[in-house]
Structures are given as C-alpha cells and as structure tokens.
Amino acid sequence: MTLSEADRVLVRQALAEDLGGYGDVTSAWTVPPGLAGTAIITARAWLVVCGLPLARAVMEEVDPRVVFAPHVEEGAEVGDRDALARLEGPVRSILTAERTMLNLLSHLSGVATQSRRFATAVAGTGVVVVDTRKTTPGLRRWEKKAVVLGGCRNHRFGLFDMVLIKNNHLTAAGGVRAALERVRAAGATYLKVEVEVESEADLREALECGADLILLDNQDLESLRHLVAVARQIKPEVVLEASGGVTLDTVRAVAETGVDLISTSALTMGAPPADVGLTLLEAE
User: Fold this and answer.
1) Catalytic site residue from 217, 256, 260, 275
2) pTM for this structure?
C-alpha cells in the first residue's frame, strides 16, 4: 500500500503526541550516543499482520538511517514469537520510534485478526461480512485495508460513494417513499441506493421504489427470515444486509437467515489489539 501525504501527516502527528516538545528524554539520557544495534518486532500470539508500511514510515520519520526490514507480507498469518520485522541502526532512534510503531501495528493487526475470525465464522454460507463507517478518525483507510486483509469486505468508504438512507433520514424526509423519490430526483443514478427498513410495509415500499439494497437493522432471527422471504418474492435480486448487535457468537446464525451481507462495527471498533513487541537483540 503506497503511503499518501495524509499517511505521512498521521505518522508525524502520532510521533508528536509521544515526543511533545522535549523528545525521548529516557533514551537520550540512558543510551550512549552513537550506540548501534539490532531489534526485532515479533508477534506474541496468533494474528493477521497489518500496518508494516506505517511502522516503517514511523521509523523513517524518526531516523532514516535505521534499516527497517519486514519479515512477512501484509495479511500474513503468524504465530507466537514469529518475527514481523528487523531493525538495524542507532539504538536511541529505534527506542524512540518503538511505541508509535507498535501502537499502529497492534491496532491494525487487531482489526485484521478480528476480521479473519468473522470471515471464518461465516465460511461456506456465501454471506459476506462487511465493515461500517465506525472507524478511528484518521485511520479509516488503514482500518478498511485491515478488514480486507482479514478476509471481510468494505462497505461504503464514506458519505460520498453510496446513498444510505437510515432512520433519521426517513424521519426528516417523511418516510421511505418520500426519501427515495428525493434521491431519484437528484439524478445520481451512478450511486447505489440502500434504505433501512423496520417493518414489512417499509420493505415493500422500498422495493416498489427501486432501492438497490435493503438494510435490515436490529431484527431478531425470526424477523430476518420473514423479511428475507418477502423480499425474495418481490425482487429476488435485491441485496439484503443485516446489521445491529452482530457478534462472533451470532454471526453464523444471522448468515443462515438468507441475507447477502452482514455489516458490523465489531470488525473495527470491537477489535482487540494484537499483541506485538519489540526486543533489542544486540548493541555495540
């Protein structure tokens, strides 16, 4: 993944949080100047790797003299004690960059690992688990990359690339039909249109008005099965998405109701951080 200028800004901001206006006082006062060494970043549990390009960018920002050599590709599954990258260069610089590198790797690998768990949970059903816009500010592009590396897929990236009419839009517009008519009047036929429905009546109205996708939010399994059956009778090709409170324990049961997509913020906001660490091997 090529780093953008926004990624570089993100790296600089992350480092600024850690360094403040004084720098790494501990390393400056304890590590002899000119000391060079080798360090290794390792996994401390099974995980799916994501974030190595950002970690390298952190190291380059702190000190371009440090050689950052990845040992694995993005998206690789690794086990406990497996090496992710090797670093060689000034020890002070390596230790200064350590926590920022690990924070990014831990968070993004956590998202990729969580996504792999969800993808595995629905394997064989034909259903795709997708992410949401519930992401960490500034990290959306990378979190969505992590989701894909884990085996799930991206929903819309933002507010600009798809029409998603939810309950507040319906309230403001005056209902399903009124909202969809306003969208069609705008002439944006190049964008897919999805609408949230809460009842069979809303579902029928959305299908009659030409919605491309239907969002079935916060429905129990019985209601999901019923609404899926109704939708398939009216418009078999419509894409049906389930959402709301989906967990690893429930995602397969939701998949077996007949929906096409399951969206969940658990891929990003609910992902536990992956356990990674850095060890200084030698210094001279």
Assistant:
1) 217
2) 0.96
